[in-house]
Amino acid sequence: MQSFLLFALLSLFAASQADVFIITTYNSSDCTFASKSQSYPTGCLGVGPLSNQNSIDGNTAFVKSFLGSGSCGGNAATTLNYTLGAVCTALINGGNTYYKAYTGRTVTPAPGPNDQITENYSGSGCGGTGNAVITYNSGCTAKDCGAATVGSTRGVCLTQGQAYATPNSSGFAVTFSLAILAVAAVIVLF
């Protein structure tokens, strides 16, 4: 019984990590020095009349953009696809830009004190679905949560060695996973 509960908890944790994929871009073919990382929560993210449908199918991540619909309806205006697996890959029509794509909320390379982290949320008060954009070696300015053109945004700065995970696609998923962990811990202990 305890083994089953442990397996169920690990499955939930893995599921909460897989609802986000990250694209890290580089300016050289050896993918040594990152210029930017951006997280993409899976599902439909509407921003006014625009929307993105982010999804994962096998080892490919897709970003479909829709115009004139905040609900990912109709035909996609653009579709970008990225090969997952953290392998250095040339960006199609990206000139001398290369990328690594991977699932989970942990950014590689890890951002540090000189890297700007901007978190964008679909709701007010930095709630709802969120994503992060990390610009490396740009300096950092912390900003409290404030209203954006649509939704809300904040600037995050890290101290040396501080860990960072991108926002989950839903605050509910994090809360639910933590609640399940707490209940399972009580069951396992008794």
What would your notes on this structure say?
- The protein is an alpha+beta fold and 190 residues long.
- The protein has one domain (20-169).
- Helix content is 18%, strand content 37%.
- It is built from two helices and twelve strands, in the order H-E-E-E-E-E-E-E-E-E-E-E-E-H.
- The protein has helices spanning 2-17, 171-189, and strands at residues 20-26, 34-41, 43-47, 50-57, 60-66, 78-83, 89-90, 98-103, 116-121, 130-135, 143-147, 152-156.
- The strands form two sheets. An eight-stranded antiparallel sheet has the order 7-8-1-2-10-9-12-11, with no helix packed on it.
- A hairpin with an 8-residue loop joins strand 9 and strand 10 (130-135).
- The longest helix has 19 residues, at 171-189.
- It is globular, with a radius of gyration of 18 Å.
- The chain starts with a helix and ends with a helix.
- Residues 1-18 form the signal peptide.
- The chain crosses the membrane at residues 170-189.
- Keywords: Membrane, Signal, Transmembrane, Transmembrane helix.
Question: TL;DR of this structure?
Answer:
With 190 residues, the protein is α+β, with helices and mostly antiparallel strands. Helix content is 18%, strand content 37%. Keywords: Membrane, Signal, Transmembrane, Transmembrane helix.
- pLDDT averaged residue by residue: 82
Largest sheet entry = 8 strands, antiparallel
% residues in beta strands: 35-45%
Percentage of residues in helical conformation: 10-25%
Note the run of SSEs as H and E: HEEEEEEEEEEEEH
Biggest sheet, spatial arrangement of strands: 7-8-1-2-10-9-12-11
Total number of domains: 1
Determine the N-to-C terminus distance: 12 Å
What's the β-strand tally?
12
Structural class: alpha+beta
Net shape: globular
Number of helices: 2
Low-confidence stretches: 1-17, 171-190
